Please model this.
Amino acid sequence: MYRWPGESGGAGRVIALPARSIVRFRFPIIAFWAVVAVLAIPAARRAGNVLRVEGQASQTESEQVYRLVREAFAQPIAQYFAITVQGPIPVDSAPFAALIDELARDVRAEPYIRQVISFRDADDEMLVSPERRSTFLVAVLTAEESGTALLRTRDVRALVQRVMNRHSPRDGYETHVTGAPAVEYDVRTTSVEDARRGEQRSLPLAALVLVLAFGALAAAVLPLVIGVFAIVCALALVYVAAQFHPMSVFVLNLISMIGLGVGIDYSLLIVTRFREELNRGQPTREATLRTIATAGRAVVTSGLTVVVGLGGLLVIPLPETRSIAIGGVFVVAAAVALSVTLLPAALSLLGREIDRPRWLARRLAWYHAPFGWERWARWLGHHPWRAITIGGITVAAITWPLLGIRIGLPRAGWFPAGTDSDRGADVLDQMGARGAVQPVRVIVRAPDGKRIVAARYLRGLRRLSDTVREDPRVARVRSVVDIEPGLSVLEYSMLYSDVARARKRHPEFLGAFLSPDNRVALMDIQLADTTSLLTAMDVVRDLRRVRGTVAGLDSVDVLVGGFVASGVDLQTQLLLRFPLLIAVVLVTTAVMLFVAFQSVLVPIKAVVMNCLSVGGAFGLIVLVFQHGVGATLFHLSAGTGAIYVLVPVLVFAVVFGLSMDYEVFLLSRVKEAFDRTGRNDQATMEGLSATASTITSAALIMIIVFGAFSLAKVLAVQLIGFGLAVAVFLDATLIRMVLVPAIMHIAGRWNWWPGVSERQDPKG
Model:
C-alpha cells in the first residue's frame, strides 16, 4: 500500500489504496475497463425495458384487493383503458355514433380485450359529457393480460390511430388513450426521455464548468468520460439485477443524476490533485502515486458515505426503495472504482499532456487564484462566532417551511405533462368522470362456505353503500346492491335467492362484481371530479375506519384497494420505516467518520451539518412545490398541496451521502495540513483555501446536473432533482464554506480528540 513519506493521517491508516500496483498495471487496467464498456453498453441500452412503474409491497391491503379482483371473479375488470373521444358535433348524431361503434368493434376484436363499454351499449350518463360532445370507451383487458397491461398500450393506441386514419382530420375528432396501464407506460417512457434530456442539458454545461475549472480541454474531458461510463456500468448492472428483483423505473433518473454528479465530482478531485502535484515539480509517476494516496483515499471515504446513505434504503422492505438503493449503490461504486483505477491509469500515461492547450490555462488562471478564498478563510478565522450566527439564522429561515409539510399524493401535476394519458385524463376531468378510471375498490368477502349475497350480508352491503354514497366526496357507487336504482334490500334478497337466474339477467355486471362461488363481492366507489388525489387518500382512510362499524359486516373481510389506496399503503410503509432509515444512516456515517479521522467531534459535527443541509432542502421543496412559490418555473400551474412520500425518503438518503462528499474533501485536506503543522487554525485556513475552488466547481456541476432533472415531466423526478440541487447548493456554500470552518476554528484542538494529543497542537 502506498503511503507518502511523513503522512500520518488517521484516514490513511484505515483506507490505503494499492497506488503502486495501479500505476504499474495501468495498461491492463485500461484494457479491462475497455472490455467492460463493450459488454456493458448493450445491456445498458436495454435497461429501460425491464423496469416497472408499479411497485406495491405484496402484503399490503391494496395489493390483496388487486390480486383478488384478478383471481376471484369470472370476468374481472382489473386493468382497462379509457379511450376518450371529443368531436365537433353531439355524440348522439349519426356520424359520431358511427365512429364510436367502429372504435368499439375494432377494439373488441383484439384477443387481449375481454369487453368494451361505450355509451352506445350501456345506459350510463357518466360516459358522456354534460354538453354531449365528449365521451369515452372502457376497454377491459382479459385476466391473462392484467399482469402485463402496460405492454398493450402501444397496441391500443396504434389501433385507435388506424381507426381515426379512416376519417378525415377535417372531421375534427380528437382521441386519447388513458387509464392505469397507459399512465404506467407513459411514466416509463417519459422517465427514459427525462433521463436522456437531463444528460443532454447538463453535459454541455458541466463541460463548460470543467474547462473553466481546469483551464485545459484534456483535463475537462476525463471527468465527463468517467461520469458517463459510471452510468453505463450501473445501468448494465441494473439490467442484470432486474432479472432477479423488481426494479423501479425511477432508477433511470436516479442513476443519471447521481452518476453524472459523483462521477464528475470524484474525477474533478482526482485530476485537480494530480495537476497540483505536477505543478509542485513532482514527476508524473510520483504525482500519480501521491494523488491516489490522498485524493483517491478521500474519494473512497466519500463514496462509502454515499453508499451508506443509499444502502440505508434497504431497511424499507418495498420494491421502490430497495431497487433505488441497489441502483444508487451500483452507480456510486462504479464511479469510485473508475475514479481510483481507470482515471489514475490514464493520468499516469498523459502526464503533462493533461494541461493541453496551455494557452487556455493561462487565460483562465484567475479562476484558480487562491487569494479570494484565502481572505475569506482569514476572515472566518477572526470572526467565527459572527459567521455561525449569520449562517444559523439563514439556515433556520430556509428550513422554517418544513414545519408545514404535508405528505401525500399531489393534487396537481401527477401525470407526466403533455403525454397522451395526461391529455386523456384532462378530458375525463372536463367530463367529471375522472373517478370512473381511478375508483376506490372495496372487496367484501364472506367466511368459507357462506354467500356474500345472503340476506344477512345484503343488509350490511346496503348500509355500507348508503354510508359511502352520503359522502359529498363520492359521486357514485357500483356494487351488487346498486345494480338497479330504487330496489330495496328485500327485492335484492329475492333477486339473489336464485343466483343463477340473477347472473343470466345481469351477466356482465355480476361476472365482474360477484365471484363464481358467490363468496366475494366488489364495490367500486367513484369519487367526485372535485376530489383531488390528496383528498381521495382521506376517503380511503375514512372508509377503512368505518368499515368495522357497519352492522351486518362484522363477520366478513372488508378490504379497501385501488390506485389511491396503494398510495396510502406505500406512505404508511415508508413513514413507518423512515425513523429506522434515519437512525441507521446517522449512526453508520458517524462511526465511519470516527474510524477514518479518529475524532469524536468530526463525526458529530458532520452529522449535524448534513442534517441542516437536508432540512434546508426539505424547507425549500415545501415552499416551492407544496405552496407553489415559484412553481411556474417548473411548469406547474399551482402548488401540489402535498409532497409525494418517496421524495423526503430518497432526498434524505441521497443528500446525506452526497453532502458528506464535501465534508470529506474539506476535512481530509485540513487533517493533512494539521498532521504537517500541528496548528488547527492554520490547518483550517489552509484546507479551506486549497479546497474551496474545487468544492465550488464540483458543487456547481452537481447543481447543473440535478437542476436539469428538476425540469423533468415526471413530478417525482422534479421534486427529487430540485431537492438534490438546492441541498448541494446549501451544503457547498452555507455549510462547508461558512459553518464547518467556523466551528473548527472555535473547537481548536478538540476537533481531533482523542486521536491527537495536546502536545501536537500547541496553539489549541
In short: The chain has four domains: 1-45+216-353, 79-183, 368-404+598-764, 439-567. DSSP finds 27 helices and eight strands in the chain. The beta strands are 80-86, 113-117, 134-141, 174-178, 440-445, 474-478, 520-527, 557-561. The radius of gyration is 31 Å.
